[in-house]
């Protein structure tokens, strides 16, 4: 049975060119987070590598791996050693020539609980993910870990209320978003940059409010090519208040205490789920209503 209060950790870091160095770093950070009381540790999107989607090249396909596979096996041992849940975003090789942006979830005893494949795939300057990843086909998933029922969505999924809603409706108490988002170095102005970051925070805070759940986004930092990742990993409570936030530039382990009992409190006082008119939402399945 899950405890009502659980400490979570978001690992925010800059990445090195060598995947094995990044894997060693996150294993060390998971141990540090566990020593500080964390029970669930979320790693940033595609933590093993530099963000190769900045360009369209064929070489990065060689970085993909089976999920479950060699990295999950290592993380399973780490999870068992520290008795922590781990959320790990990986470049999945599903078959020859077929790849996904995938998050693996490992329970505190070291068991592999399953994976979520990123559903919404961006294609923007500096974020050419459609070149590399097929859209997810596993649906929106909830993982019942030792400490909480969690949902995992990935980066571009952050902007879609439908994804958060469906995951919450399946019982998620905390929505984790492994993320790789930042500014182009050529961005026009600081005002534009701040507006982008503010929108990124607000949309995720709105998911917390509308669904009465905790939201936790783990972003990377550092400059890679023409992108500067803006860090600012954060945790929002079920009423949209940011309780803990990292800075924009530093490698950090962000810790946050989540009282799952508060979910019922907020949902009782703001009964958005009760008052949903589900019989009126059929048109949401259309691309656009002409």
Folded structure, characterized:
This protein has 290 residues and is α+β, with helices and mostly antiparallel strands. It contains five helices and 17 strands. The protein has helices at 19-35, 70-82, 161-169, 190-211, 261-269; strands at residues 5-12, 40-43, 85-95, 98-106, 112-117, 123-124, 127-128, 142-144, 149-152, 174-178, 182-184, 214-218, 221-224, 227-230, 234-236, 242-245, 252-259. The radius of gyration is 18 Å and the shape is globular.
Keywords:
17 strands, globular, single chain, 290 residues, alpha+beta
Instruction: Please state how the strands of the largest beta sheet are arranged side by side.
Output: 5-4-3-2-1-17
- The top-level CATH class is Alpha Beta
Strand content: 25-35%
The helix content is: 10-25%
Number of strand elements: 17
Q: On the 0-100 scale, what is the average pLDDT?
A: 96
CATH homology superfamily name: Carbon-nitrogen hydrolase
- Separation of termini? 48 Å
Number of helices: 5
Structural classification: alpha+beta
Major beta-sheet overview: 6 strands, mixed
SSE succession: EHEHEEEEEEEHEEHEEEEEEH
Give a summary of the structure in a few sentences:
The chain is an alpha+beta fold.
